[in-house]
Amino acid sequence: MVIIINKVFKRFFKIAVIIFLLTPTSNILSQQTPQEIFIKAEKELENNNYEEAVNLFTAFIKINPDSADAYFYRGNAFFALNKYKPAKDDYLKAVGMDYYNSELYYNLGRVNVELKAISDALSNFKRAIEIDPDYKEAASDLADLYFAINEYAYAEDYYSLVFDIEPKNEKNLSMLGKTNLRLKFYDESINYYNKAIEINPEKADYYYGLGVSYYFLKDSVNSIVFLNKTISLNKNDAFAYYYLAKVYDELSMYDDAISNFDKAIEIGHFELSDAMLRRDRGIVYIKKNNFELALKDFDFALNLNSADTLSYLYRGIVYKNLEMDTLALADFKKVIEYDTSNAAAFLNIGVINQKWGNYDDALNYLKKAVTINPKDTMALFELGSAYFNAQKYMDAINYFDKAIKVNPNFKQIYLKRGSAYYNLGFYRQAVSDWENAIKFDPGIYNDIKFLLNDAKSKSGS
To answer: Is 42 part of any domain?
Structure first.
């Protein structure tokens, strides 16, 4: 470990006149002045002979216990020996002597990081920067520490300070890219990753950062380009395959999505949950109507993580599609055991109860879904349908109205609201709704023409 020696200034101290006696094994030291001992200790420290440096500084401190320099340098030697507690004690001793030295506070901060005294370390690094505003090592370590504790806004501030001091620092540019990505400042992230690539065009991580930033910006073309570039430089980057799979999923290129999920699962990564990978691949299998493979993935995911609410939710959807409603209901209820704010689970429980004719239960669950997400078209439509099936037509119309405000292009709402109007004897409104439904889907005309003509006839009277 390289220890920073104070090159800003050295204190002058008086040469002791008295001859001092040490232990019998230190007779040579007894023939030297305190200044000579200090100089020798300094040389041993510079030559990385840390144990000898500690011994010499200790000998000097016995003669001159008020030397802040000696405590500072002995602290450096202890630090190099990974003896963090005595290093900290020495640094604090120097601080107590009003030792105005940015390197002292910087090294004290590093020791506190090792001792996991994070709050103290943050304070020490900041003090070092107050003394020397251009102290880029202190700013960099402070930024790294903030990043490590997920305080990304503060991390960005200090990485930016390093950038102002040294704009072509590759490591700092990459961390600015990563920090801005965490802060969801994707354009800034792209800017810094591109600067890092100018310095090192063969670093896979930088292209990965670009690919992910473009993914969140919904720029699928650039995302695919840079994620593939990442893989060309590092064929074992599981995260790159994972995000490629996500891009292809959003493009409805499901086979490509599954292929990339397969690769991410094969490679694996300690930060990529295998349960999450299987679950996300299972969701793509649902979109391909491959319910058998979807079930295998969700079962696997839940075996790894029995509290994964999304796996329960989507497995429930698979069971519902397979008309295995009892199993579906059990999974949806499992979701709300873990997450009482999951609108989709309440919606699906309501739909199953409505299918079974349990309208009171259906209404309760669907109302909960709408309360959680008042702009969910399907929840509003299903709640309206439950009221319709319970023959509460005005309540049904109320929720159909709300659903149409959210999504005016949903033909089923016009069909169902038209039927509610028809049952209430509001024939003109029924005709209007049914004709709107036909505009969205002319193919339904034959299915409703009898009722439509009857409503027209009655509306005329």
So the answer is: yes
Cα 393 off chain centre by? 46
Q: What is the CATH number of the domain that holds 29?
A: 1.25.40.10
SS3 content of the chain, % helix, strand, coil (to 5): 75, 0, 25
Helical ranges in 97-151 per DSSP H: 102-114, 118-131, 136-148
What domain range includes position 72? Answer: 1-132
d(CA 266, CA 252): 23
Contacts of 2 (CB under 8 A, 6+ apart): none
| Burial call 111-142: b when 16+ CB within 10 Å, e when fewer | bbbeeebeebbbbbbbbbbebbeebbbbbbbb
Residue 117, token pair as written in the block:
């005294």
Residue 156 counted as domain residue: no
H or E element, residue 344 = helix 343-355
- Tens digits of residue pLDDT in 153-202: 999 999 999 999 999 999 999 999 999 999 999 999 999 999 999 999 99
Whether residue 30 is contained in a domain is answered as yes
pTM for the structure as a whole: 0.82
Exposed e or buried b per residue across 191-210, where buried means at least 16 C-beta atoms within 10 angstroms of its C-beta: ebbebbbeeeeebbbbbbbb
Closest CA to 77 of 47, 103, 98, 109: 47
Count of domains for the chain: 1
Please write down the long-range contacts of 225-234, taking CB distance under 8 Å and 24 or more positions apart: 229/204, 230/204, 230/205, 233/202, 233/203, 233/204, 233/207, 234/204
Token digits of residue 382: 């299903």
Alpha carbon 103 to chain centroid, angstroms: 34
d(CA 259, CA 334): 30
Could you tell me if residue 197 is inside a domain?
A: no
Distance CA 394, CA 423 (A): 10
DSSP 62: H
Q: Which residue has the tokens 């840390």?
A: 50
**Do residues 162 and 136 touch, judged by C-beta distance below 8 A?**
yes
Residue with tokens 């309360």: 371
Contact 53, 41 (CB under 8 A): yes
Q: Please name every residue paired with 269 in a beta bridge, in sequence order, or none if there are none.
A: 272
Say which amino acid occupies 240: A
Give tens-digit pLDDT for 394-437.
Answer: 999 999 999 999 999 988 999 999 999 999 999 999 999 999 99
Beta carbons of 30 and 21 less than 8 angstroms apart: yes
